[in-house]
């Protein structure tokens, strides 16, 4: 009953869209809660134009009287309902606490480029239809006393050649950033990371710095990492210290090739977060010179997390990771279901990889891993290690098309271990003995399988991420 209630609550909060290896889409979109929505440029009362052919002695209020650079913007106090439109290539924009929100975009039918955008201790910004090259986008909160800055939309944007492509960062306790939508964004050719949220980490604190961060329809790739002797680098999307967050319909690939440190990197992951969802995503060809280079991960203190309908393949590390690092908060209520992993853990891990470095007994509770399809040639499809002594860890109804190793503290039952003759992208064939042969689970299992079929079509569930439907 506890599992059912938690899962239903989280899915209600984080209903999203999905698509990967031809699955049927989920049409709901993630809700945004908190402040009032910010308006589009057409509704803005004041529009300023900036063009390489302009003049900073102009008033900037028409195309004919455009400014030439970002200098007038960086020196003004931005009023509410202001739009800045650009044509050409420009230096960085910097907004502070005296600025009151703005839309940053390109002239109609053009694509401008800015060196970077920094937003410090202020709210209400839309960044759309523009490229950011070299310094990335940074939204920062240095305020104290549980203060949130809020309402940020980043859409139809490309960010490249930065240290971190998009960084959401806060300095103090539970002060942070709220209500962020990142949609249809590409982040690539960066060094340290792609899209990050970070806060003040303290395993004893109550609450989280950030809330309502939602990423969709985006790509993060060629994030190289570097020879950092103190921490991992080269992560695609790494969100931490956030509650109510989702990553959907998003790809992360070719990341981490120069990372030399263990503990990461991963294509798409959360750590120290609560009420989070990774759905309909693809993570592949992620590498590492150290450990990891994994596809997906719930790590270090995630509570109420769901990974579903994701496709992981050809990663150096494991496909789907769930685990704890030393000093993390307790991990609870994790669901990994209806995912597919193919040819992962090229150098380390397992297609599904459970680990516990916390050094504390029962640091993980209520971990449910079911109806996944894990395909390997000779490597491990499942691995759990490091004194994995935790409470209520259930692995059931999965297909392990390869080898596995298991801790005796993991409840491992009603799984298929062995070769399967798949058809049409890891579906079961008409005569498969895995159809109508798994265990019916007595908790909420979701409405559909990976491919959009109902999650139960016969008397019993099928093994793996595909539920057979007889269409003859």
TrEMBL record:
Signal recorded as keyword: yes
Assigned keywords, A-Z: Signal
SUPFAM superfamilies, sorted: Pectin lyase-like
Signal peptide: 1-20
Coiled coil start-end: none
InterPro entries in the cross-refs: PbH1, Pectin_lyas_fold, Pectin_lyase_fold/virulence
Record PROSITE patterns: PROKAR_LIPOPROTEIN
Protein name per UniProt: Parallel beta helix pectate lyase-like protein
Annotated source species: Gelidibacter sediminis
Classification of source organism: Bacteria, Pseudomonadati, Bacteroidota, Flavobacteriia, Flavobacteriales
């Amino acid at each position: 009953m506890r599992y059912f209630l938690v899962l239903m609550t989280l899915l209600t909060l984080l209903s999203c869209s999905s698509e990967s290896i031809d699955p049927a889409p989920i049409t709901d979109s993630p809700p945004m809660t908190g402040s009032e929505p910010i308006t589009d440029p057409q509704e803005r009362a004041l529009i300023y134009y900036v063009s390489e052919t302009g003049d900073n002695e102009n008033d900037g209020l028409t195309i004919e009287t455009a400014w030439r650079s970002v200098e007038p913007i960086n020196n003004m106090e931005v009023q509410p309902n202001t739009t800045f439109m650009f044509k050409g290539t420009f230096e960085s924009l910097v907004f502070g606490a005296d600025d009151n929100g703005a839309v940053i975009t390109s002239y109609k039918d053009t694509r401008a480029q800015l060196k970077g955008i920094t937003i410090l201790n202020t709210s209400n910004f839309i960044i759309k239809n523009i490229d950011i090259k070299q310094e990335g986008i940074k939204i920062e909160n240095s305020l104290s006393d549980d203060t949130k800055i809020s309402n940020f939309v980043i859409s139809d944007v490309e960010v490249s050649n930065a240290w971190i492509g998009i960084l959401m960062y806060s300095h103090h306790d539970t002060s942070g950033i709220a209500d962020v939508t990142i949609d249809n964004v590409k982040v690539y050719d960066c060094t340290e990371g792609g899209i990050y949220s970070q806060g003040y980490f303290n395993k004893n604190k109550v609450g989280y710095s950030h809330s309502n961060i939602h990423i969709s329809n985006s790509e993060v790739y060629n994030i190289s990492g570097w020879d950092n002797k103190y921490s991992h680098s080269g992560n695609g999307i790494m969100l931490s210290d956030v509650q109510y967050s989702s990553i959907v319909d998003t790809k992360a690939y070719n990341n981490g090739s120069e990372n030399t440190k263990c503990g990461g990197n991963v294509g798409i992951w959360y750590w120290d977060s609560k009420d989070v969802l990774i759905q309909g995503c693809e993570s592949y060809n992620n590498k590492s010179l150290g450990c990891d280079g994994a596809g997906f991960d719930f790590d270090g203190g995630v509570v109420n997390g769901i990974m579903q309908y994701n496709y992981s393949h050809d990663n150096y590390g494991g496909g789907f990771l769930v685990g704890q690092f030393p000093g993390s908060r307790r991990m609870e209520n994790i669901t990994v279901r209806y995912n597919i992993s193919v040819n992962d853990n090229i150098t380390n891990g397992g297609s599904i990889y459970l680990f516990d470095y916390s050094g504390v007994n029962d640091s993980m509770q209520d971990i449910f891993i079911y109806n996944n399809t894990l395909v390997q040639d000779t490597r491990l499809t499942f691995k759990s290690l490091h004194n994995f002594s935790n409470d209520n860890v259930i692995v059931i109804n999965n297909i392990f098309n390869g080898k596995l190793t298991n801790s005796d503290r993991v409840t491992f039952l009603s799984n298929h271990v062995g070769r399967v003759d798949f058809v049409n992208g890891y579906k079961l064939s008409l005569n498969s003995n895995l159809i109508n042969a798994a265990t019916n689970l007595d908790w909420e299992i979701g409405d559909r399988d990976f491919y959009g079929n109902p999650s139960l079509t016969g008397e019993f569930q099928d093994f793996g991420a595909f539920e057979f439907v007889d269409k003859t």
